[in-house]
Structure formats: structure tokens, C-alpha cells
Design brief:
Radius of gyration: 39 Å
Structural class: alpha+beta
């Protein structure tokens, strides 16, 4: 080391000599060094919420209950329709009625709610395939489906997993141990055949699983094979938010604090504390009688005057802080404030439509990714049963959810007008015929004769909706140059011309 290096080392801050990772450091201010208080912060994991606290939160906190219920309720709010290319409308209606008889929709909704609250739930499908419940379901031999029972994760443990890493279901639950959730008092568990109702092992193919917050495989195994509650991530923020409002309410009770100045207070307390208590009692009594505080004005000399005042508590900025707390809770719950708090949107020209549409888009995504596969499996198994109203056992069932956003009458009228103008443009350009458009719009006109429209379209003719008012063939003129060959929709040309179709023997010019 040279002399210059040795001299320079004497002026290097000791913190700089320590080996550190890459990052900005300022030894003058301490930012980025061991003296920086921010670098001492570490994320400490919260304790896993137990079932009792989760249930208490759901029953006692309206915000916690709304976070749990709002999303599943919105997923089922507008309902859905069954569709299939392998079954007619009557078969699908009867299939839906059979599902409703087993309260399937109610159980699906509750499974989403309790699965989100406790971290998991199962719908047990009572399919009679001639096998015991711990064996895989034989879908080709289902005689009937008797029930669709809901059990939440408090009464379910994963008993075994698929352990072959070369199979697509590796690491997923294979069988569940389900205990009886219905208390029979002191009575012993009854027997049903060879199975006790106290506990049963059920194969995963006979269940429809609902989860809470996604977790890693190790956490699921430590949690009896289940995920965590959706309130787990929200818990800490929700607790701080509730405490913030509680603290504000306590401040309201001390909004104006009374201050009483008494000469020689400490000496009076040390000598005779009862004198102070007597004086305060007299003040309270006189205030009750005279609605005023009577004070000693002093003698202007050695005896000072008493004084009484009120110190007001400052609430400036509290509303802004609570507003930020509400935003953080809504962010943690992944819900807009308009839905979680019922709070009107703030800001210039704010209507809240963008937040609502984004919220509905999120719900629609959850319907497609989470709810639809479960419902499709349920109705597919119903259709496979031998007593199913669907004749084709391997019918492909589809679920179509109704739109969550309902347009206003003005918005719907604007859409209908735009669609009508588009139809006229396509018919005029001969892209489609009037019959094709009419059949596509038959839901708007239920009284339309669809059979006559289909017959005319197959014959390559134009359907006349007024057959009794016939055209006079003697005066029907040939199309002019550039005029449409479609007799029902002539192409408008500039200048006057003779209309190609004339009824009742009269002619008209345009």
C-alpha cells in the first residue's frame, strides 16, 4: 500500500469498510447504512387465523362479511342458462329442475362463501355407481344422483395425495376424510349399511372442491390439505382500519376537555385532599343549579383567581386519513370502494361507472375461470345418469352467464338503433337478405312468422309479410340500370325515378 492509500484510508468512514450488497449509501445522513432505521424493517408473518376467529369476524364485522360474501353473491346474481348442441330445450329445462330439487345452486353459492371464509369446502356428489365412496367414480355406470351435500374444511382432511410425478394430477388430493357435521347430542353415530355417519373416506372424483386464497404446496400440506382464508391477507389492514374509526369515536367523546386552574393545588392535595374533592363537588352542584361555573375571583392581591376553560380537540386531517385507510382496505380486499363501503365516487365528473365495469369484468372472469368448470362438471354428471332427462348420455353441457351490467333504456335504445342502421346497410349492399336479418332478430319480434321466412330464404325468394295485398304484375317495371335486383330493397339513386314495385295499380315517383 502506498503512502497516499494509507492517508486516504484514515479518512474513510468505518461503515464503508464493511462488506455490503449493492445499493445507495450516504454516510453523512446515514441513509443505506447500518444507522438507517428503514433498513432494520423486516416483514413478520401474521399468525394463521383459526376457525373461531374467522367465524367471529364473519358474524361480528360487517366489512369482513361483505368481503367474503360480495364476490360469490355477484357471481350468482343474474343467473345463468344451460346450453347444449346435444339436447333440446325441454331436456335442459328438466335437467335444471332436477338440479334445483337438490338445492345445487344454493349449495354452490354457500360453498363459495364458506370456502372463501375457512379456506376450503367440498360439494359431495351422491352418485350411485355401485361402488363404495372411497373408490373413483365410474361415470359410465351412474344410475342416479341422489344429493349434493356441502361440507366446509373444518370437517374435512386430505387423507392421501396422488404421488406419481409422471401423472397430470401429481400432488393433488386423492381422498378426503369427512366427519359428520350434524350433532346428534349424546347419541352414538348411527350406521348406514357398512358405513358410519361419524366419518367417511371419499374419493376426489366424487367431490367438487372450492378453495380460498391460493397457497403453496407446503402451506396446504401443513393446513390439512387446504388453502388459507381470503381474510388472511386482509386481516391486518382490516384491524388497523377498524381501530382507526374506534379511536376517532373516542376522540369525539373528548372533543372539548374542561380545564380548571386552582391556586395551590399540589399543596392542597398533599395537606388535605378532601378539600379538593369538596370544591369539585360544589362546582358540579352549582353548575347543575345555575347552569354556570362559579369561580373565586381572588382578592386582587396575594390570593389568585380561579380559572375554568375548555380545550377543543383538533380534528383537522382525520377525514383524509380515514379516507386513505378506506382505500387501503379496498385495495387489500380487491374491491372498489363503491362496492365495499357504498361510497359515492369523488372527483370531477366522477360517476363510478369505470370502477363498476371493472368490478363486473373481474366477476365475469371469476365466473369463467372458477365457477364454470365446477358447474359444467355437475350438470355433465347429472346428464350421464341413467335416469337423466337428457337422452344423449355424453351430451356436452355449456354454461352461459347473463351480463352483470344492465344498460339503461336510453343506452339500450341507442344500441338497437345502431344495430338497425347496420342491418339496413348490409341489406342494401346485398351482403345479407332481409330474411336472414329477420331470423337473426326473431328474439325482438316473437310474433314473426319464422317458418315462412325460412321457407322463403331456402327458396331464394323474398318473403312478403302482407300476402293479401298483392302486387299488380302488369305494372311491375324492370329494374333500371344500377338498381338492386332485390325487389324488396332498391338501391337509392340520385334524381327522380319510378319505383319498381307498385301496389293497388298506382305508381309513385321519388
Amino acid at each position: 500500500m502506498t503512502l497516499r492509500s494509507r492517508i486516504a484510508s484514515l479518512f474513510i468512514h468505518p461503515e464503508a469498510k464493511k462488506i455490503r450488497g449493492d445499493g445507495w449509501q450516504n454516510f453523512q445522513t446515514g441513509i443505506g447504512t447500518n444507522r438507517d432505521k428503514v433498513t432494520k424493517g423486516r416483514f413478520w408473518p401474521n399468525a394463521i387465523l383459526d376457525h373461531n376467529e374467522l367465524l367471529s369476524l364473519y358474524n361480528g364485522s360487517n366489512l369482513a362479511a361483505k368481503i367474503v360474501e360480495k364476490r360469490p353473491t355477484e357471481m350468482f346474481r343474474r343467473g345463468y342458462d344451460l346450453e347444449s348442441d346435444d339436447a333440446d330445450a325441454d331436456e335442459l329445462v328438466k335437467l335444471r329442475e332436477k338440479s334445483d330439487a337438490m338445492r345445487a345452486d344454493e349449495n354452490f353459492l354457500e360453498a363459495h362463501i364458506w370456502g372463501g371464509l375457512f379456506g376450503g369446502a367440498l360439494l359431495i356428489i351422491g352418485a350411485d355407481d355401485g361402488q363404495t365412496p372411497e373408490k373413483p367414480l365410474n361415470e359410465d355406470n351412474i344410475k342416479t344422483i341422489q344429493y349434493c351435500n356441502l361440507v366446509d374444511r373444518r370437517f374435512i382432511w386430505v387423507q392421501s395425495y396422488y404421488s406419481d410425478p409422471l401423472q397430470p394430477n401429481y400432488g393433488l388430493p386423492q381422498t378426503y376424510l369427512v366427519t359428520n357435521t350434524v350433532s346428534q347430542g349424546a347419541a352414538a353415530p348411527a350406521l348406514q349399511g357398512t358405513f358410519k355417519t361419524a366419518a367417511a373416506v371419499i374419493h376426489e372424483s366424487r367431490c367438487i372442491r372450492f378453495d380460498g386464497t391460493p397457497t403453496d404446496v407446503l402451506t396446504r400440506q401443513q393446513n390439512a390439505g387446504w388453502t388459507l382464508s381470503i381474510l388472511q391477507r386482509v386481516y391486518d389492514r382490516l384491524k388497523k382500519f377498524e381501530h382507526s374509526f374506534d379511536s376517532t369515536e373516542h376522540l369525539l367523546g373528548d372533543a372539548s376537555q374542561a380545564v380548571f386552574k386552582f391556586a395551590g393545588l399540589l399543596d392542597a392535595i398533599s395537606n388535605n385532599q378532601s378539600l379538593i374533592q369538596t370544591r369539585l363537588a360544589i362546582m358540579d352542584e352549582t353548575r347543575s343549579v345555575a347552569r354556570a361555573v362559579l369561580l373565586d375571583a381572588g382578592d386582587g392581591g396575594t390570593t389568585p383567581a380561579e380559572s375554568f376553560s375548555r380545550e377543543a380537540t383538533t380534528f383537522t386531517g382525520i377525514a383524509d386519513i380515514l379516507g386513505l385507510e378506506m382505500m387501503l382496505v379496498a385495495c387489500a380486499a380487491d374491491m372498489p370502494q363503491t362496492e365495499l363501503f357504498g361510497r359515492s365516487p369523488a372527483g370531477l365528473n366522477a360517476t363510478g361507472d369505470s370502477d363498476t365495469r371493472k368490478w363486473y369484468d373481474t366477476i365475469a372472469s371469476d365466473q369463467t375461470r372458477k365457477l364454470m368448470p365446477k358447474q359444467v362438471r355437475w350438470f355433465t354428471l347429472l346428464a350421464k345418469a341413467k335416469d337423466s332427462p337428457v337422452k344423449k348420455r355424453d351430451a356436452k353441457i355449456k354454461i352461459s352467464y347473463k351480463p352483470l351490467w344492465s344498460p339503461t333504456d336510453t343506452e339500450q335504445a341507442t344500441v338497437d338503433l345502431t344495430r338497425a342502421q347496420m342491418d339496413v346497410a348490409y341489406i342494401t349492399a346485398e351482403v345479407v337478405t332481409a330474411e336472414e336479418v329477420a331470423l337473426d332478430r326473431q328474439d325482438l319480434y316473437p310474433s314473426m312468422d319464422t317458418d315462412a321466412r325460412e321457407s322463403a330464404m331456402k327458396a331464394g325468394q323474398s318473403h312478403d309479410p302482407y300476402p293479401e295485398d298483392d302486387l299488380d304484375p302488369a305494372i311491375i317495371q324492370a329494374p333500371q340500370q344500377g338498381e338492386s335486383t332485390n325487389p324488396s330493397v332498391p338501391i337509392p339513386l340520385p334524381g327522380p325515378r319510378v319505383v319498381s314495385q307498385v301496389k293497388n295499380g298506382s305508381t309513385a315517383k321519388q
